[in-house]
Amino acid sequence: MEAQFRQSIQQCKWVDTGNISRKPGGLLQVSQRTKEFSGSRMFMTIQSSRRIPAHHKPCLLKVSSSLKNTSGPVLKSGNSPVSLDESLVLKNKSARMEQLLNARCIYIVGMMGSGKTTVGRVLSEALRYSFSDSDLLVEETMGGMSVAEIFKQYGEGFFRDKETEALKGLSMMNRLVVSTGGGAVIRPINWKHMRSGISVWLDVPVECLARRISAVGTGSRPLLHGESGDAYSKALTRLSTLLEERGESYSNADIRVSFEHIASKLKHVDVDNLSPAAIAIEVLEQIESFLKNGGLA
Ligand SMILES: Nc1ncnc2c1ncn2[C@@H]1O[C@H](COP(=O)(O)OP(=O)(O)OP(=O)(O)O)[C@@H](O)[C@H]1O
Ligand SMILES: O=C(O)C1=C[C@@H](O)[C@@H](O)[C@H](O)C1
Hints:
CATH class of the largest domain: Alpha Beta
Helix content: 40-55%
Strand order of the largest sheet: 8-9-7-10-11
Radius of gyration: 22 Å
Structural class: alpha/beta
Shape: globular
Number of domains: 2
CATH topology of the largest domain: Rossmann fold
Strand content: 15-25%
CATH superfamily of the largest domain: P-loop containing nucleotide triphosphate hydrolases
Number of strands: 11
CATH architecture of the largest domain: 3-Layer(aba) Sandwich
Number of helices: 11
Bound molecules: adenosine-5'-triphosphate, (3R,4S,5R)-3,4,5-trihydroxycyclohex-1-ENE-1-carboxylic acid
Oligomer: single chain
């Protein structure tokens, strides 16, 4: 396959085919003719379907290039812009971790608004995992009722039972990134299910959570209803109480990804402008060192 691939791109004049190297995870790195594309990099990935016999594997060629000084958001991952540089780091790290991860699921825990869904989607794409959201699963089993409606009609206890059922089902699967409900950590039985994989706590300062949530409203977040004051103060008051109650439960996670730590590492003045991809990269780095240091052994 690789030889065929080399041949098929011989005519492609801006690719120096003599300089193809294989990277882990099937990534082929191709350097370009520096005369014409000075300062740019090009990566090609061969992806194939597992269900088809090896000698008939179709080949999907993904080509991306980046020019030096191109750091603006240019690729889209779901709704999250991922810069080419971040995208390459994510791809390389993910490919390196394929074996180490051994198809284990990743459970993302954290307060509402911490970015479990946003970061989870970026991670799942990079790892070529599927993405799942336990809140959405509960809504599906309830025939499309929203979480807020379930709380209102049946109460929190009922919702928590459904959440536990959803996590139990997910614990039997592999190659999933799961965004868990913000309160999933409070039930020990849920930890039993999440221990089937690697759990990651997105630890976001409460002021940042309140800013994010007050920007979009609390309509879909029943536990934030009922405070008085402006949207930011209401969210801040309620979230602070919840975080105080749950701090210890979140710290049961195998890995804690602190936004303050990422901001200081990247020399950002605050935590509000960390890209989902930068957070996903930190998650991968921490998972790698957790597993290499015998985590889950
Ligand atoms: N890195 C980021 N920078 C800026 N805004 C972000 C970032 N990540 C997420 N957001 C925004 O914060 C809000 C919450 O994000 P998201 O839905 O991913 O969080 P969540 O943890 O899944 O929340 P919930 O548990 O309430 O469903 C969204 O409006 C999202 O666009
Ligand atoms: O923090 C919580 O307890 C919740 C978070 C959401 O994801 C939903 O699971 C629900 O609104 C409860």
